[in-house]
Specification:
By secondary structure, the protein is of the alpha/beta class. The chain is 38% helix and 27% strand. A hairpin with a 2-residue loop joins β15 (304-315) and β16 (318-329). It starts with a strand and ends with a strand. Bound molecules: NADPH dihydro-nicotinamide-adenine-dinucleotide phosphate (NDP).
Length: 394
């Protein structure tokens, strides 16, 4: 048995630790990225924390042939993609070529336009069906656990779900004037894009940060939360039957929003190439170089996250409202795996998805979103792997 993980960034660090903590299930673990030293640094921490030795390799995942050769050599049961899936979904292509199961934590984004859509990943469905292999899309927290919370609610709490509000609160403080908790390119693109929610069969577009609502987060308190478009809405609209409205809210401080607006106003969030002193640069990529590396925030972030789903519907003829959520403490994550809670809450579900694939509990032929699988084994794993959840009846 073996597993291949591609990507040694903030999320990758957590996945590698958690794979090692479950080494009996995964067998030989290989961590690959373009920069070997990043993998080796993670492998060193994994060894210190868990005693498990993981292998490191250098690969450019944009090169389908090189990646397919690595997969053929290692013969992993599943490839975990926690690299940025920018280039033509090469990791999905390489898995197809080698008939190997695939898992990721985010949707594909064009380098030049941020679309946040599953279209291109879903387009692999027929080919994966024909090859008899399984692709699990969005096995992070949101998307990921939030999708599973919805399917769990549908299975155990409701006859019909009418509305879902996905709430993502990070009440952590890293002490820097401005930094992003995960890849700044993704984070800033997401936040500066127009908002969108789905109601009565239609998508309704909003201006960035136009809709603000104060939500009261258990164990955290009241926080300003802003309506954003988020990728899990696209699949949940298809897969949760009877749904009338679904929205996504994320908390931001005024300080964060002021910095972001300023960066946007001066053009630093642009994702197109601009000429600078005779070379071409992409402003948002340059900004990424300047900002603190999200992984470096780990040791200095204090506070908690609360991410969950506020769900309304009908059970046995009566109206019911629940909030199903997880609270995660930044410093506890750091003690366990040298990471902050944002990477932790993404990396743990990625490992759990891979574990269920390897154990044969989740599988099939084709491309799947999380809510299409039986939520029960995933929910059980969350409780034992570091992301326990609670359900509040409201
Ligand atoms: P980082 O940018 O920190 O890490 C990306 C990693 O991928 C780096 O190790 C990079 O290393 C590697 N990489 C990039 N391109 C290639 C390539 N062509 N070949 C091989 N390796 C490559 O990202 P994060 O860890 O913050 O995020 C990882 C993923 O998780 C992203 O897709 C993000 O969108 C997603 N995410 C999902 C969340 C969820 O809840 N679902 C929440 C947060 C993040 P190198 O350059 O050395 O190759």
């Amino acid at each position: 048995m073996s597993v291949l993980q591609i990507g040694a960034g903030g999320v990758g660090g957590v996945v590698a630790h958690k794979l090692a903590m479950n080494a009996q299930t995964f067998g030989e673990i290989t961590l690959a990225s373009r920069t070997l030293s990043k993998c080796e640094e993670i492998a060193k921490s994994v060894k210190e924390k868990t005693g498990v030795t993981i292998k490191c390799r250098s690969v450019d995942a944009d090169d389908v042939q090189a990646l397919a050769e690595l997969i053929n050599e290692l013969k992993p049961k599943v490839v975990i993609n926690v690299a940025l899936p920018y280039q033509d979904l090469t990791i999905m292509q390489a898995c197809l070529k080698t008939k190997t199961h695939y898992l990721d934590t985010a949707n594909y984004e064009h380098p030049d336009t941020a679309k946040f859509e599953y279209k291109e990943q879903w387009a692999f469905d027929n080919a994966y069906k024909e090859a008899g292999i399984f692709a699990l899309l969005g096995s992070g927290f949101d998307p990921g656990v939030t999708n599973v919370f919805c399917s769990y609610a549908q299975k155990h709490y409701f006859d019909e779900i009418h509305s879902i509000d996905i709430l993502d609160c990070n009440a952590g403080d890293h002490g820097y004037p401005f930094a992003t908790n995960f890849n700044p390119e993704i984070n800033l693109r997401e936040v500066s894009s127009k908002g969108r929610y789905w109601e009565n069969g239609e998508w309704i577009e909003t201006n960035p940060m136009e809709i603000m609502q104060v939500w009261d987060y258990p164990e955290v308190g009241e926080k300003d939360s802003y309506l954003l478009y988020h990728e899990e809405l696209e699949s949940l609209v298809k897969n949760i039957k009877g749904l009338k409205r679904i929205r996504f809210f994320m908390t931001f401080s005024q300080n964060y929003l002021n910095h972001m607006r300023c960066l946007e106003n001066v053009g630093m969030l642009r994702i197109d190439e601009v000429q600078h002193n005779g070379s071409k640069i992409i402003p948002i990529q340059f900004l990424k170089t300047l900002l603190p590396d999200p992984a470096s925030l780990a040791g200095r972030t204090v506070g908690k996250t609360n991410i969950g789903c506020y769900i309304k519907g009908i059970k046995e003829g009566k109206e019911r409202t629940i909030y199903i959520y997880n609270v995660c403490d930044h410093q506890e994550c750091y003690k366990e795996v040298n990471s902050q809670a944002i990477s932790y809450t993404t990396g743990v579900p990625a490992m759990i998805g891979a574990k269920l694939i390897v154990e044969g509990k989740w599988g099939g032929a084709g491309v799947f979103n999380m809510e299409e699988l039986d939520p029960d084994p995933f929910m059980e794993e969350l409780n034992t792997q570091g992301l326990p959840w609670k359900v509040l009846e409201l």
